[in-house]
Design goal:
With 388 residues, the chain is an alpha/beta fold. The protein is built from nine helices and 17 strands. A six-stranded antiparallel beta barrel has the order 12-15-14-13-16-17.
């Protein structure tokens, strides 16, 4: 009988998830390792060798760690689920003129849900991952916090930043639900990457220490998302080619582009033309197949609207709240006042974000995450940005 019960650990084969499993095993949990096969890159028509968490090498590395420590390991094929939720979303967002964030989609709509379903089948109370973040339970102010039927605060679970600011992954976890957070352990949140490497070395897992890390999108390992879209949507290239580059503020035609799905907000390189000065993509207009260009100062916006919300720390934001808001993973964050409202067109909740100072290259389709100190208040998907 284990000391703490049975726990299902997502193991990608890398050092972080492997050490998470090792630590939980040493703490006395009955660990079951599980590696998820999310994507077969060869099926996309790419030419680069499969790498990262989906590769055979990574699956074998995860299995070897499990075998060396004496706990079971399973491979979970979720390629169909991944394709429906992540790949279709990725493709669809570019076709709508937005810039998707597949890693957030994968974490919140695939990995957690898939793990919890298998955890139930394996009689595991908890799941665990190797993310650098923490989970804590809070009981905020009554007007913001969740209440049960008796009116007593039952508390909420919130993602909080990991202590290693260089590795913190709280940004990608804003979409995890309350029930999922309640059953999740994040063993690495209180540690730094250097400490994880030291622990691996001390335990003899030198191959993990020397293993290179991949920061690419797992299903686009050559980083050529344009090529991926062309292979995924036959005829797309011919359908969208020949639209106009237009100048910010004047709509003066600057030249022809390859098609609006092949550009992202903030892009400078790869425009295919010389303009005599650095030019950036400031807006994408799907309906007219126009890509708006401007100088770097034209990228700044004062605010944005965020929809499809998932709030963690509070059930609702009932009054304007002072936050630090991030618009991309590596963003340091900007002070902003957020207000929860209702979208008059859809009737769904949304958040209006007003920044203390202008923020550059806000891309609809990306995730926005709101912080109060180290805690994630919640997040959502950017629908539009604006100037006041």
């Amino acid at each position: 009988m284990s000391k703490h019960g049975r726990i299902l650990v997502a193991m990608s084969g890398g050092i972080d998830s492997s050490l998470a499993a090792v630590m939980l095993h040493e703490e006395g949990y009955e660990v079951i390792g599980m590696t998820m096969k999310t994507w077969d890159y060869a099926s996309s028509g790419g030419t680069k060798k499969e790498t990262g968490c989906c590769s055979l090498d990574s699956i074998n590395d995860a299995r070897n760690i499990s075998v060396s420590l004496g706990f079971p390991h399973y491979i979970l094929d979720i390629r169909a689920e991944f394709g429906d939720a992540v790949i279709d979303h990725f493709t669809g967002e570019y076709l709508e003129g937005r810039t998707p964030n597949p890693c957030v989609m994968c974490n919140t709509h695939i990995k957690w849900d898939a793990l919890l379903r298998r955890a139930d089948r394996l009689d595991c109370e908890f799941i665990a991952t190797g993310h650098y973040a923490n989970i804590r339970r809070v009981t905020g102010t009554p007007e913001r916090d969740h209440q049960d039927n008796e009116g007593d605060s039952v508390g909420r679970y919130v993602i909080s930043k990991g202590v290693d600011s260089l590795k913190d992954q709280s940004y990608v976890l804003w979409g995890v639900s309350q029930e999922s957070l309640r059953r999740t352990k994040l063993p690495l949140g209180h540690l730094r990457k250097t400490e994880i490497r030291e622990m691996a070395t001390e335990r003899g897992f030198i191959e993990l220490v020397n293993k290179s890390e991949s920061y690419e999108i797992c299903f686009v390992p050559d980083n050529d998302y344009r090529g991926f879209l062309k292979r995924r949507v036959p005829g797309l290239e011919a359908e969208v080619a020949g639209g106009n580059f237009v100048m910010e503020g004047t709509d003066k035609i600057m030249g022809k582009h390859e098609g609006y799905p092949f550009y992202t907000i903030g892009q400078r390189k790869g425009l295919g033309m010389a303009f005599g000065q650095p030019m950036f993509v400031t807006e994408i207009r799907k309906d007219t197949n126009e890509v708006v260009l401007g100088v770097d100062t034209d990228l700044f916006r004062d605010g944005m609207m965020v929809g499809r919300l998932n709030l963690q720390k509070y059930d609702r934001i009932v009054e304007p709240l002072d936050t630090v808001t991030k618009v991309r993973y590596k963003d340091a964050g900007t002070r902003a006042m957020i207000t929860q409202t209702v979208d008059p067109h859809t009737g769904n909740d949304q958040v209006e974000v007003l920044f203390e100072q202008g923020v550059s290259a806000i891309a609809p389709g990306q995730a926005a995450v709101f912080y109060e100190g180290d805690d994630v208040i919640g997040g959502g998907w950017i629908t539009k940005s604006f100037r006041r």
